[in-house]
Amino acid sequence: MNVTIKDVASLANVAPSTVSRVIADSPRISEATKQKVKQAMEQLGYHPNLNARNLASQSTQAIGLVMPSSKDVGFQNPFFPTVLQGISEGAQEKNYALHMTTGKSEEEILHAVVQMVQGKRVDGIVLLSSKVEDQVISYLIERSFPFVLIGKPYKDIEEITHVDNDNIRAMKEATAYLIGLGHKQIGFIGGSLELIVTSDRQDGYKKALAEAGIEARSEYIIHQKFLREGGQQAVRELMQLEHPPTALVVADDFMALGVLNTLDELGIRVPDDISIVGFNNVLLAEMSRPPLTSVDINIFELGYQASKNLIQMIENSNEPTKRLIISHRLVERLSCSQPSVEKSDKSND
Amino acid sequence: MNVTIKDVASLANVAPSTVSRVIADSPRISEATKQKVKQAMEQLGYHPNLNARNLASQSTQAIGLVMPSSKDVGFQNPFFPTVLQGISEGAQEKNYALHMTTGKSEEEILHAVVQMVQGKRVDGIVLLSSKVEDQVISYLIERSFPFVLIGKPYKDIEEITHVDNDNIRAMKEATAYLIGLGHKQIGFIGGSLELIVTSDRQDGYKKALAEAGIEARSEYIIHQKFLREGGQQAVRELMQLEHPPTALVVADDFMALGVLNTLDELGIRVPDDISIVGFNNVLLAEMSRPPLTSVDINIFELGYQASKNLIQMIENSNEPTKRLIISHRLVERLSCSQPSVEKSDKSND
DNA sequence: TTGTACGCGTTATCAA
DNA sequence: TTGATAACGCGTACAA
């Protein structure tokens, strides 16, 4: 059998409750017994049974993490491990453990979440992305269970603590950067519009055009759900327009890599023939050819702040709802240049 | 307060133990009461408290996962999310939860593992890679706690259930493939030799050369710890040798991508001037330029078998120690060709 | 087939 | 400052 608090107690000649107090580092306990107990613990190699502790204290020191559905391509995106790293770091600092969950369908995921919550396996939950109708969010709100969302909620913004970038502004700046270089024909390539992050970035793109007095053309906007096949075709069509864009903003570096390859196959050179700005600034961005100018959104920090603030909510029940905006910055590399004369409407000197 | 087994019992007019039996789907319970109880559970929205259950049953339905140290570059490697996906899938199928741990140092990690094990948070552990002197492994063996290792143990091979590829053979085949194309000057680029996987692959490389009667040249072998700066320099030096290699085997696709870029900067064309075979066949391999011929090691399966077999060990205490070898296969893409005449020792027709 | 009673290892309350 | 003692919610031998 395992060594319990009782064993320690009898070895140290004190009551179990005293040992418990020593573990909790209670202030009202004599230094003498404290040492005595600690030594006994050491000697026996004692470690508290967390299940018993959780049961008695009605709290686990753990946070739950809902991962993207395992079929999801998002899993392959370098975004995921990085944000996980951040979450993990924030948890570790406060001595919280991490409990993960996935599922192949919406139902499976919801079920797993309910299990975690009602089963009292975790004290709070970090959510990775919200969808338009999110059952998990509804469920958590209804039970008023602590959670923080990484990304922007589709609704109930005021009631959901979330950590996000200012994606509208970020994409606006990225687009403005291209406009500043002299581009006027700028395309947008993003993922599914069901993701809030996509629509935000698209909004930013449109805003930048509007402010510069450039008319948005619907044929310049592409949504590709998949990274490869579908995307390639879309890019091809885009470049076969009568007036193809001289620059592209792509809402994700991973996608941008696919775009880069398709362009290469078409014999279109970057940045000579077309400029590209990526998004997220994952490690890949600097390893691509040419190295990708990309908007760094501080992925690690996104995760770190999420778990850190979640723990604050857990430990202080009247912590206010927060909206945390993580900073971004454009990292210039070699995928952008001024538009070539032949393709722009008027020449630059 | 939360709804407990007692509430269900009183609503259904039975004893708590009966409810417990219904949950466990005990065979010796009348269908009538079973229905009655189930309905009561439904009506109250009952969910068992897992901490109480774990405490009473002395087992959690959870497996622990030790992730690479958070500072580790390995985190950025697409290998990680994929293997995680596999582990997660294997766990989910058996209704096991996943509990994660990281740490910034060896000590932190060991501490976290001890916490998981002694704290009885998990029933078993999946380890991602072993190092030469691995405290975690020693600890788990000493306590004879169920665990399975993904990769090859440095020692105690017979006593550690592990799931791995036959990396020696896989790399031997990859090298032989290049030899078959006519290459004789073949370089090897791998990570730190402290990782068993690196030394295995290097062994395979040497074996292939030996079998073909080609002398191994030490200046053709490179170990780069980091993906970028260090690696670039190494590749440069390699290509400036009097007789530079006409082909390279690279022990990791992610590294191969860096190599590809360095070669591009040097104006060396792939596969015209030099052929490259990568390893792991991550999504990246098909998105690189040129698409990378790579050895698919079935990363998902590695993770899936790991958790699946771990659960077998947990549920059947005299499950034998196993060594599971996951198959591999060379995926041909466009990064290899026959050596060009000027650089090979004799011409091909 | 079902109920009673105890144990799982802690924490927390109340006395001392 | 410390010690009994009662929860915490569930599983399970044992009894009925």
UniProtKB/TrEMBL annotation, chains A, B:
Alphabetized UniProt keyword annotations: DNA-binding, Transcription, Transcription regulation
Stated name of the protein: LacI family transcriptional regulator
Domain HTH lacI-type, first and last residues per copy: 3-57
Database matches in InterPro entries: HTH_LacI, LacI/GalR-like_sensor, Lambda_DNA-bd_dom_sf, Peripla_BP_I
Example of a GO MF term: DNA-binding transcription factor activity
Transmembrane feature ranges: none
CDD domains in the cross-refs: HTH_LacI, PBP1_MalR-like
Superkingdom of origin organism: Bacteria
